[in-house]
Amino acid sequence: MPRVKNFNAGPAALPLPALERARDEFLDFAGSGMSVMEHSHRGKEYEAVHDEALALLRELLGVPDAYDVLFVQGGASQLFAQIPMNLVEKGRGADYLVTGAWGEKAFSEAKAATAMLGASARLAGTTGEGEGKEKRYVRAATAADLQVSPDAAYLHLTSNETIHGVQFAVDPARPFPDAGKVPLVADMSSDFLWKPVDVSRFGLIYAGAQKNIGPSGVVVVIVRKDLVAAGRKDIPKIFQLRTPAENKSLYNTPPTFGIYMIRNVLAWLKGLGGLGAMEQRNRAKAGKLYGVIDANPGFYRCPVERESRSVMNVVFRLPAEADEERFVKEAKAKGMVGLKGHRSVGGIRVSTYNAVEPAWLDELCAFMQDFAKRG
Q1: Which of 357, 347, 283 is nearest to 317 (CA)?
Q2: 194 is in an annotated binding site
């Protein structure tokens, strides 16, 4: 069967060259007579992969020396608890800016984690409108939405809300907030490496791999060394960020194949010209989609304010749910999958992550134009 055009939100499309490299090396990695999955994580063969992946991350993002780059097992949801467990001292609080469903989840988990440790998590701002199932998120936050506590351990935000299609720092009118001396912590799971980012603006960046840089089971963490050093020591060692920082993310057995695939994806990304080239590619892809949506206002409707429209997850509605169901069915018949919106909001969602090829967007946009004409 030919490969489909994969628009899933995560796990998501991986670059074909990265997959082909894995296929070619699957049974015999580096002439060793075994798969990379069979190698000891203490052996020189795997360690070379591990080191290269860490080095590529530093190179692509220009990570300053004052930061550690870590691989953590699990997913970003684990970090929802692990970050406040590490960074919020007893008697202090952490601030949370909520602009969508993943920000809600991070805030909820932080409240539970800090309560166990004699600390707290506070809502510093939200862009949610309505209540319960009717709650809507249609924009990134501005300075007017935010009240940061000067004594906060950090301010947490979600850079791209995958479900609602809301993203910071796409448009100059919606930059990342200025938290002053309070460290900024960002969940970048669904827009990590979509464009260059000034790492020095953040105290900590974390990203689950399965959306934009690899398979599930690995989280990339980029964190200021002083925050790691000051982190709590009254939590289990396996949850302390200093543990992977002091052991090159090899304290215990890492997800070796996941990190190997991240290495492959990063090498592919570097070969395309790095993050500057990727930003141009991604903006062009999303621009085509929004162009079709805006050219057919009587049929397609994007609920997100223009300044906050995501480049990674383009969401829109059709006149009726029956139209949306038919849209997904017909697209699938043409080899385009993963277009159904999240169950909590419905509609259509097109994930245009780094690995999604521009030609796929051309085909999807042509389908959308034809579908709108047929009504």
Answers
A1: 347
A2: no
Question: Is position 169 annotated in a ligand binding site?
Answer: no
* Residue 268 is among the residues annotated as catalytic for this protein: no
Q: Helix, strand or coil for residue 157? A: strand
Q: Please confirm, yes or no, whether 211 is among the known catalytic residues.
A: yes
Residue with tokens 């203490």: 42
Listed in sequence order, the residues at least 6 apart from 259 whose beta carbon sits closer than 8 Å to its beta carbon are 49, 50, 53, 71, 214, 218
| Structural domains in the chain plus CATH codes | 21-271 (3.40.640.10), 273-374 (3.90.1150.10)
76 marked as part of a ligand binding site: yes
For the chain, the residue count is 375
CB 17 within 8 A of CB 357: no
Tokens read off for 99 = 């602009």
Taking 50 as the pLDDT cut, the residues of the chain under it are none
Question: Cβ distance 127 to 101 under 8 Å?
Answer: no
Q: What is the pLDDT of residues 223-245, one digit of tens each?
A: 999 999 999 999 999 999 999 99
* Residue 85 structure tokens: 């467990």
pTM above 0.85, yes or no: yes
